[in-house]
Amino acid sequence: MNGQIEQVYEEYHRYIYHLCLKLTRNQTEAEDLMQEVWMKVVRYEAYVKDVDHLKAWLTTICMNTFRDRYRKTVRRSKHILNQPDQLDVPVLDLFPSDSLTAEDILEKDDLSQMVQLKIAELDGIYKTTVLYFYVYQYSLIEIADLMKVSIGTVKSRLFRAKQRLKEMMIADTAAVEYLPA
Predict the structure, then answer these.
(1) In this structure, what are the phi and psi dihedrals at residue 95, rounded to the nearest 5 degrees?
(2) CB distance 114 to 175 below 8 Å
(3) Backbone angles phi, psi at 16, to 5 degrees
(4) Which of 17, 58, 18 is nearest to 41 (CA)?
(5) What pLDDT is recorded for position 101?
(6) pLDDT tens, position by position, 49-87
(7) Locate the RNA polymerase sigma-70 region domain: which residues (predicted)?
(8) What pTM was computed for the model?
(9) 3-class DSSP assignment, residue 137
């Protein structure tokens, strides 16, 4: 770790720990979460010098990491039922099947083509931002760097692009049947 990251850690480690503890309400989980947060900070250490509000940036990383962990736990708990000590069925039978029916595959392909067509109709900056984020899976920081704009601008563009895509899908009578109720 370089001196700048050490300085950031010294200044904010107690704040981040207390935030993690407040979110998890468990000392062990808070320590695990804090470790993940600092691993992300070290991974993006090249961007630390460009951050205007370091405490807000660290808070965002912490909140997003907590949300990701929570969602992962929820997804996992949906697949593994409350099990007795001894199971009469194999554990693999408790997981939902990953194989799709032919109808599901066709519907998924149709929806994918429809979304691709709608993305192609977006204005240039929105289309590029959506492609960078969802197709190429660049981080917000990477997109901001590529497009020479702030992270806030990238977030705004993603938000507006999703809103516009939603409006376009609702306006398209063929696409409406694929939208969730």
Answers:
(1) -90, 140
(2) yes
(3) -65, -40
(4) 58
(5) 60
(6) 888 888 989 999 999 898 888 887 766 665 555 444 444
(7) 9-75
(8) 0.44
(9) coil
